[in-house]
Design goal:
This protein is α/β, with parallel strands linked by helices. It is built from 6 helices and 15 strands.
Length: 267
């Protein structure tokens, strides 16, 4: 059975994100549409307040890996992001009552954008943001699943290049970098997956939420949009990520999805 999410955690955009070359007014509109869509998909959305001291905090995916009521708290390589992890840790404990798993290895680096969970196994990108010790932490936190490190040679997270578009369906672009990563995954995977290949590299990062595929708009990925319209036989929703996508993997970056049976209030 595919995983059904019940909650999403997001973090509002601080004005300090402007220092990353992002047009804040446009980014805020993108974020508002993003949160509204999560609610339309019947998720209980927990919105964390903006923190001007944490300009990257909107990219909340990097702070935790959540699976089977366990939250693995990450260790970003950039020490300025450690406060983001602290803030999310408090929400996961207080609002969602999840079991927390902490990384003991002081040399570990791990960001959630490098962790791809297929529903059957984990692939962890070894990148500028995550190292082998970080991948071992994922394996230790979720020993019931295979966990495979995958080398990412370019300056992006793993999920910029490949993401899950549905049950046993990987979404990847036709770029050389994406295709090389896909080959590495196929060589190491315990299970077999179908692939959906798109044209624009920034189209590969999609959100699969309870049977609905969320992808970028026709203005942002015109060729891939047509491919999705022709090949995807499931409900689809579109979002703009022009500004938020400048400094992130894309759609997955701005939320942590959680499966939880109990009702949790919004902040």
């Amino acid at each position: 059975m595919p995983m059904r999410y019940t909650h999403a955690i997001v973090s509002r955009i601080p004005l300090s994100l402007r220092t990353r070359g992002i047009e804040i007014d446009v980014a805020k509109k993108e974020f508002e549409a993003y949160v509204q869509l999560l609610r339309e998909l019947e998720l209980d959305v927990i919105e964390m307040p903006q923190d001007e001291e944490l300009p990257e905090s909107v990219f909340i995916e990097d702070t935790a890996v959540v699976c089977n009521n366990i939250a693995l708290m990450t260790k970003p390589g950039n020490p300025t992001r450690l406060k983001e992890v602290e803030n999310v840790r408090a929400i996961l404990r207080k609002e969602l009552d999840l079991a927390l798993f902490e990384i003991a290895d002081p040399n570990a680096k791990l960001e959630g954008g490098d962790v791809l969970f297929t529903g059957k196994e984990f692939f962890v990108g070894i990148s500028d943001f995550t190292n082998e010790a970080g991948a071992r932490a994922v394996a230790n936190a979720f020993p019931e699943f295979p966990c495979v490190p995958i080398r990412v040679t370019e300056k992006h997270h793993l999920k910029y290049y490949i993401s899950m578009a549905g049950e046993d369906l990987m979404c990847v672009s036709s770029s050389p970098h994406s295709q090389e990563i896909l080959k590495r995954i196929e060589r190491e995977a315990t299970f077999t997956y179908q692939t959906l290949t798109l044209s624009e590299e920034n189209a590969a990062n999609v959100l699969s939420i309870n049977g609905t595929l969320v992808h970028r708009s026709i203005d942002e990925i015109p060729i891939s949009y047509q491919i999705l319209a022709e090949k995807v036989d499931m409900p689809r929703q579109v979002l703009n990520m022009t500004e938020l996508g400048k400094y992130s993997s894309g759609l997955t970056s701005c939320c942590i999805l959680v499966k939880r049976s109990r009702y949790i209030r919004n902040l």
